[in-house]
Amino acid sequence: MDTRVRCYDCGATDDLRDRKRCNCGEPHWFDTDTRDFDWPDEGMGIWRYVDVLPVNEPVGLSRVSGNTPLHRNRGLESADGPRIHLKLEGLNPTGSFKDRGSAVGISYAVADGTTWVGTVSHGNMALSVAAHAASVDLECAVLVAEETPRERLELIGQHDPHLFRAIGSYGDLYEETLNLDVDIEFVNSDTPLRVAGQKTVAYEICEAFAPGAPDAIVLPVSSGGNASGIWKALRELETAELLDSSAMPRLYLVQAARCDPIAQSYRAGSAAVTAVDGEETIAVSIANEDPPSGTRALTAVRETGGAVLSIEDDEIRAAMRQLAEEAGLSVEPSSALVLSAIEELTRSDTLGADDDVVGILTGSGYKEQTTVDTAVRDLPIDDLERVLSGLVGGETDP
Amino acid sequence: MDTRVRCYDCGATDDLRDRKRCNCGEPHWFDTDTRDFDWPDEGMGIWRYVDVLPVNEPVGLSRVSGNTPLHRNRGLESADGPRIHLKLEGLNPTGSFKDRGSAVGISYAVADGTTWVGTVSHGNMALSVAAHAASVDLECAVLVAEETPRERLELIGQHDPHLFRAIGSYGDLYEETLNLDVDIEFVNSDTPLRVAGQKTVAYEICEAFAPGAPDAIVLPVSSGGNASGIWKALRELETAELLDSSAMPRLYLVQAARCDPIAQSYRAGSAAVTAVDGEETIAVSIANEDPPSGTRALTAVRETGGAVLSIEDDEIRAAMRQLAEEAGLSVEPSSALVLSAIEELTRSDTLGADDDVVGILTGSGYKEQTTVDTAVRDLPIDDLERVLSGLVGGETDP
């Protein structure tokens, strides 16, 4: 088990047990040496990359995460646009990318002898941590926001965690849980254990393109934890000489325009991300007004030559429809905006016909159904052949 | 493209385009020669087994199906019970095992120049066929039952198929669509194309155990199409000499006690399955009163030395809870009863500590949420450390 963590910014090192965030204020991640790493011959899911993970013994549901399809669907591509490869993270065991980080977090907790884990979330992460904890009989505390809808509580509740509705400032809770003098391993969205798991998606993507690399990776950003993990992976693969420094994929991060602190700071040319007062958006999973790894994500974008984009809710709805009607994919709004971003990057000639772009669709659309305008017609069974023949023959109302 | 189909019962052959059901009344399946088949070195999802599929060019979303995890979770096992390996079919692209058959059906339709596909379903199969058709821009007709709830229509409707509410006898519709003089390829639940796709789950299972084999495979049964596909695969692997005739896995099929025509016919020792008037059950996906491949499924059970079990709704609810709370898995009721069946087979000493049993969890629990009794407590953030310390320390109400 690794315990040494390092600050990406100032380079200071610490022990994970002492602190998850550097004295300088920026988040830590594991200090991973990849000089001898090479693409493995075998391995199950994310554990294919066990040599670069802080724990080497997967437990329970942790065994299942990762190895999601990288799916090219020509129906979404245009003649002058890039080749679009979609990473279907909704096919992780609890339907989102969060399972990668939970798998590492829970396996680490078991190896470390911890009996309690926790998380501050009322969405994909809460479900993922609760499911993984249940699979190995760990106690699990989930701290949800006061206004979390009943439907979502039941989704998380099926795995029987200790559910707490936090009364007070939910925004502060995230940081506070990392500094408690309580024996609970909080696997929040940008903590070192989670980032270690989340980075495996970039290992999978890069291995699929090896010895080449995609030109760009486009993903939603909320806390910045996932983007940090992907950036960490790219740096590690560069150290391992499996990615060429001159051909590093550019990272494009996407936010909902109604809540886009990282995009605003990017456009303003700021060195650090400032919190915003966001509006309500259909992209609930990524509506983070004060992202704890926002500055780290911004740094990742700048160092890889990418950008941060903001997408309006109407465009997100259109992207969901397009993914469902043209690619047969059902994803949550917070994933669909990746397609809007790829289209915007194509319109601005940032991406062109020579490019390979990977869009990370972070979560399934099945967990929280969106209302769809659905037309249904009555068909008297006695009239089956006539109606269907007319339909196939091109009649609009046979 | 293969077109020759054969009757498993009387051995008669036909062309798929002429008939999907034999003159003798039993359903056809593809006539597949596996004498030269061997485990492949590579291949994507179900297309790993392209040598035994009736079409060899995957299209659109079809590329993604299959290669689902086979997951052993010791938390579900008992000291005197079998090793339990769960096949997580809910991790197919539309969240159910149906994607395997849809992948073959849609790819075949495209290769055959068909522009219309259809299906008679208001559940997993409807969603799966609509999504696959959308991904390759095929027109798709979905015929749902009159009483299908709005929520489910919207789930299917997101892929924009032609949705028809069938007014009249829904039970007859299934057969009628197979005999229409209309240019629509109906990929219903026991048609040869679907069975050809569904069989790949058994190829995956057997390859995972090769050169050995699991002792038993336990799966839900509705139309009998999936069970038929699995039986077909076992026979094909026996022909290929990749399964030893003396070590064929036994097939155990499971129905909800409230609607169990195949189980009733099995217990009565009948040669054929008779339709029943079922009651309402929470296992909606498998409540089939008149299964079109019921007799074929019954034959599969008898020839492999298995059985058909009936599970009460209360036990199904308990199994769902157990899977969620002890394995971190969310599945639909129609899948959960597989665990109840494994427990029943363990209690009756049919399965013991020396056995490997594979349970096929056919569908995700996320598409139609079941109400869960969920306790949530208020936690004032100012009181965070005290409450959590008390909890970890064993206080029941800190």
TrEMBL record, chains A, B:
Entry's Gene Ontology BP terms: isoleucine biosynthetic process; L-serine catabolic process; L-threonine catabolic process
GO molecular function: L-serine ammonia-lyase activity; threonine deaminase activity; threonine synthase activity
SUPFAM superfamilies: Tryptophan synthase beta subunit-like PLP-dependent enzymes (SSF53686)
InterPro entries: Ser/Thr_Dehydratase, TrpB-like_PALP, TrpB-like_PALP_sf
Protein name: Threonine synthase
Pfam families in the cross-refs: PALP
UniProt keyword list: Lyase, Pyridoxal phosphate
Record EC number: 4.2.3.1
Needed co-factor(s): pyridoxal 5'-phosphate
Gene3D superfamilies found in the cross-reference section: 3.40.50.1100
Keyword Lyase (UniProt): yes
Natural source organism: Halalkaliarchaeum desulfuricum
Domain of life of the organism encoding this protein: Archaea
Domain Tryptophan synthase beta chain-like PALP as annotated: residue spans: 64-363
CDD domains linked to this entry: Thr-synth_1
Source organism phylogeny: Archaea, Methanobacteriati, Methanobacteriota, Stenosarchaea group, Halobacteria
